[in-house]
Amino acid sequence: MGIDYADIDAEVTFWHGENDTNVPIGGARRLATAIPTAELHAIEDADHLGTLLECTPEVLNTY
User: Fold this and answer.
1) Three-state DSSP class for 17?
2) Residues 20, 45 contacting (CB under 8 angstroms)
3) Angle at CA 3, nearest 5°, toward 37 and 16?
4) Is 3 left (phi over 0), alpha (psi -120 to 50) or beta?
5) What are phi and psi of 16, to 5 degrees?
6) Where do runs of H (alpha helix) occur along 7-47?
7) Where are the domains of the chain?
8) Could you tell me the keywords of this UniProt record (predicted)?
9) Is residue 54 within 8 Å of 24, Cβ to Cβ?
């Protein structure tokens, strides 16, 4: 048993720092590839906290 990511039809958006060492971006890339409706925003030169600090205004304005 497990999750069949191909069956997810909800809109999914990932915001992830390219330099995140706490949670490496590879996991987000795999999920974004596996989920048909997913969109990945890879933030260049951002780490774990940097993504939050850099992207909060854009996320709030977008959603």
Assistant:
1) strand
2) no
3) 50
4) beta
5) -145, 135
6) 25-34
7) 12-37
8) Hydrolase
9) no
